[in-house]
Specification:
Blueprint: E1 2-8, E2 17-19, E3 22-27, E4 32-37, E5 43-48, E6 58-60, E7 63-67, E8 72-77, E9 83-88, E10 95-98, E11 101-104, E12 113-115, E13 118-123, E14 133-139, E15 145-151, E16 179-180, E17 185-187, E18 190-192, E19 198-199, E20 205-208, E21 223-226, E22 243-245, E23 247-250, E24 254-259, H1 268-271, E25 275-280, E26 286-290, E27 294-302, E28 305-312, E29 329-334, E30 340-345, E31 350-358, E32 361-366, E33 370-375
Antiparallel strand pairs: 1-33, 2-3, 3-4, 4-5, 6-7, 7-8, 8-9, 10-11, 12-13, 13-14, 14-15, 16-17, 17-18, 18-19, 20-21, 21-22, 23-24, 24-25, 25-26, 27-28, 28-29, 29-30, 31-32, 32-33
């Protein structure tokens, strides 16, 4: 591959999403969503929302949909960025100050979930704060609210926290990016049907101990492919065969990830060094594992190739500032046996989970505020 184009978008970028000949990315702190031409990288349009947009827009038909920290969900035309509708998902216009900016007390994530013409979005921080979280179902074409499912954990009669059901677990939820399968919608380990009704159980899916947007690499933080948050120690009711990693990608048969072999103690001496790995989706059996010279901060699965990117592994936990770009690499591996296929030097490290693959190209958002397109050719 080679770099086909590189565009300066500016600001603290999210990962990109790609469809319809355009690349979409958000500049989080500037409240700005940008669309670039996928062939040239030239700016197509920009839209400024009323608050931070913490993740990239969701693309459905001719619409780009996204939530904002102002508590609203937006739908704009993917062709020119014109506003189609704006819906207040938050219950009220109450504002708070977060990191120097005004935001809603019930913010929405940028990446909403869309299926069968219905957008699913949350409004709220926690099921214990400010009346909890609302799971909203919204008609994509019109912006009409189809239903609201309130998630409020304190006992309605006493106002007290319900009893914990495990040594490191309690009822309730924090806001996070929604995910789904063919039957359910998930907010972390909470399960809902397509109508937004709570369900007792679901299928294994992607969830996190912290949240999908947490790029600070905190102690004992990892993604999980399973049904509940757990420490992988196998004791005190915890999952012994937990499938986890700092970042994960999967297809119908295999889960790929980057992480330690164990996370019970979260240090190399007892849990082993970080490595890239592939395990069976059906039983968790390891198919291959290998050390890599980088700390993997972004991963994307593209057909039979697994792409990863990051800084040299010795930077370990020090990437929070993101200023040092020395040695940043994009690497390609075979999904069959983990064989290394290629390395490409990067001018800047990727933003966390900052890659997308579409139409035979790889798109990468980096900490210097740029989006790069890699593709075949001279």
């Amino acid at each position: 591959m080679r770099v086909k184009w590189q565009a300066t978008v500016g600001g603290r970028l999210t990962s990109p999403t790609v469809a319809g000949g355009k690349v979409f990315v958000s500049s989080v702190d500037e409240h700005r969503v940008s669309a670039l031409d996928a062939d040239s990288g030239k700016a197509a349009w920009e839209f400024t929302a009323g608050g931070r947009v913490d993740s990239p827009p969701t693309l459905y038909g001719d619409r780009a949909l996204f939530g904002g920290r102002d508590g609203y969900v937006y739908s704009v035309r993917a062709s020119d960025g014109a506003l189609a509708w704006r819906l207040r998902a938050a219950r009220s216009e109450r504002r708070v100050v977060v990191c120097g900016q005004l935001e809603s007390a019930s913010p929405s994530h940028g990446s909403v979930l869309v299926r069968d013409g219905i957008a699913y979005a949350t409004a709220g921080w926690s099921s214990y704060l400010d009346g909890g979280i609302d799971l909203c179902r919204i008609q994509v074409e019109t912006g009409e609210v189809v239903s609201r499912t309130p998630l409020y954990s304190p006992d309605p009669e006493t106002g007290k926290q319900p009893q914990q059901y495990g040594p490191a677990a309690m009822p309730g939820a924090r806001s996070d990016i929604l995910v789904s399968d063919d039957q359910h919608v998930y907010l972390r380990d909470l399960v809902f049907d397509k109508d937004g009704k709570s369900q007792p159980e679901g299928k294994p899916h992607l969830l996190t101990v912290t949240d999908f947007l947490d790029d600070t690499w905190p102690h004992r933080s990892y993604w999980i492919f399973g049904t509940r948050c757990s420490v992988a120690g196998g004791c005190s009711g915890r999952d012994k065969d937990l499938i986890y990693g700092r970042v994960l990608a999967f297809d119908d048969s295999t889960i790929y990830g980057y992480g330690r072999k164990g996370v019970h103690w979260s240090n190399q001496f007892q849990d082993g060094p970080y490595r890239l790995f592939a395990v069976s989706r059906s039983d968790g059996a390891e198919r291959w594992a290998k050390p890599v010279p980088i700390q993997v901060r972004a991963m994307v699965l593209a057909d039979r190739v697994l792409f990863v990117a990051g800084l040299p592994a010795e930077t370990e936990e020090s990437l929070a500032g993101g200023d040092d770009s020395r040695g940043a690499l994009l690497m390609a591996f075979s999904v069959t046996d983990g064989a290394e296929l290629a390395q490409y030097p990067l001018d800047s490290p990727p933003v966390f989970d900052g890659m997308a693959a579409a139409d035979g190209r790889l798109y990468l958002a980096t900490l210097d505020g740029k989006v790069s397109c890699f593709g075949e050719g001279k």
